[in-house]
């Protein structure tokens, strides 16, 4: 194979799992990040700042990728700033790669904020879409940095004549440290903290999320989908939803997670009880747990992203994602969601990130 992959954001949940999958399939794989992941055997690290063109030119001087996978973004205080920064990162990257004339395909990972709105208006009344969410749904009439990212890819593809794919996962479940959106690890840390002083594992979200149907995206499913779309003729120049292929109710899964960690569970009790508030004063408790148990990460904020977990679990509607477009074109990978969570928890224990 002559496929050469550049994974942008290789230190994150999506990028790290993708890099491992590419390497397992025999791809020459480069991992770009400000602080590259050097723990993945065979991955060629590329240290660069996407906001610095000179940094990119220097770091990529000897890299000639055929396939580019963009799995990273940067959170800012406003959506206007999200748009400016995240579109600039993609524009800088694709401008630098344009000079090489080697890129055949660019895959961009975004998410369900495409349908539910940006952080500032996420899943608010008046902007609630019909579910299941389908790729055919039009863009919302509001600013959204996902749209800006897509437009950068479309423009570069037209200029440089490469193909593209857009991937819209639901919440991604997988192992990573220092990730801005990490629901699985956040819940594992919360349950661990609850167990220490005997606190109850309190559901933090809405009635709609507690009682309704939902789905998520295993990081390995997303990795396989990215590779499939970038190497399948029928999938080129298309946008896709990506989920595990099953649905679940949090009212069941929450109890199953509590049982895994052997903590007492509390379900929805009439109002939202944000996890960010619940964990606000627990940094010292986590540090004590980490020291006592010999864990590798004492910094609670490096593992838990309560703000994003609250966004997901506090939505006023049930959120399901239609994946039939991918199925019709031949993508058949499936993952049981409960197993996704439990496999993640097992990995976190082996890695000494939770007791």
Structure description:
It is globular and about 60 Å long. The longest helix is centred in the first third of the chain and has 20 residues. By secondary structure, it is of the alpha/beta class. 41% of the residues lie in helices and 14% in strands. The protein folds into two domains: 166 residues, Rossmann fold (3-Layer(aba) Sandwich), CATH 3.40.50.720; 128 residues, no CATH class. α1 packs across α8 and α3 runs parallel beside α5. The strands form four sheets. Strands 3-2-1-4-5-6-11 form a seven-stranded parallel sheet, sandwiched between helices.
**Structural class, from helix and strand content?**
alpha/beta
How widely separated are the two ends? 42 Å
CATH superfamily of the largest domain: NAD(P)-binding Rossmann-like Domain
Low-confidence segments, ≥5 residues, pLDDT <50? none
Main-sheet strand order equals 3-2-1-4-5-6-11
Any idea what the CATH architecture of the largest domain is? 3-Layer(aba) Sandwich
> Judging from the principal axes of the Cα atoms, what is the shape?
globular
Q: What Rg do the Cα atoms give? A: 20 Å
Look up the CATH topology of the largest domain: Rossmann fold
Into which percentage range does the β-strand content fall?
5-15%
Mean pLDDT: 95
Could you give a short account of the major beta sheet? 7 strands, parallel
Please give the number of β-strands: 13
Q: Considering DSSP H and I runs of 4 or more, what fraction of the residues is helical?
A: 40-55%
Q: What's the total helix number?
A: 14
What CATH first level of the largest domain would be assigned? Alpha Beta
The secondary-structure element order is: EHEEHEHEHHEEHEHEEHEEHEHHHHH
Structural domain tally: 2
